[in-house]
Amino acid sequence: MRPQTKHLHAPGRAEPRFRPARPPAPRTRHAPHAREVASLRGRPQPNKSRDTRYGKRVRLGLLGPAGDDLAALARATEFLLNAAKVTRAIYLGDSGELEEMVSLWAESLVGPDTSDVGVWERSLGAALNGTPDQIDALVRGERARLRLKAVEGLATLELRSVEMFGDRVAVLVHDKALLDEEDILSATFLIYGKSDLPLIKKIGARWFLTPGPLDRAGGGAVVLDDSGDEVVATFYEGGGRVAHAETLITGRAMKLSVQG
Hints:
single chain, alpha/beta, six-stranded mixed sheet, 6 helices, elongated
């Protein structure tokens, strides 16, 4: 079967959609500027859906590699959690930038001690000495901190993860070179992070896709929605603009019912 390939990069648009608010400071990583962190304070918003685990409806967010641009990663994460309302978001990068970004974000919400244990000390202080507004702010911050647990990276050792969409298997890796024959045979969706451009390709009955780096036009973030009969992949650029959407049609086995 002839492969169907779609490159989601608009020719002639080289400038990134995800841009920091100001040129990055001369440091190893581009940490979010104080004003950028402040704009995220009180967020992400708690997911009010009752279905917090994969069930009838799956909305899985995918984040492409950010490199050293933590501000771009924070903005893309905020969009997936608050606007796209994903159940979970998985970062497909290969280094520790996700952990650093989440740590900085959590500190902006609740202070330097972002552990679950620290919430007891914060709650006790607010209960004894806090005003009603301070108590409300504490509750909002803690809810937002807990929502950050919906953001995950790939397993550290193998940089891979396996997800289920009903009866369909998705294998997620950083580098598609890590995919072996067993992965390809068992999976319907093969998702990877290491790529120069966003890409979606169908080969036989399997779909290969990557959101592409966060600093490229045409992608950077993807939402996989399983609320219908087939999974729909929606690619987003910076600012949350839809760049491309495609239904990932699969040759699912027909279920036969025999009545005696």
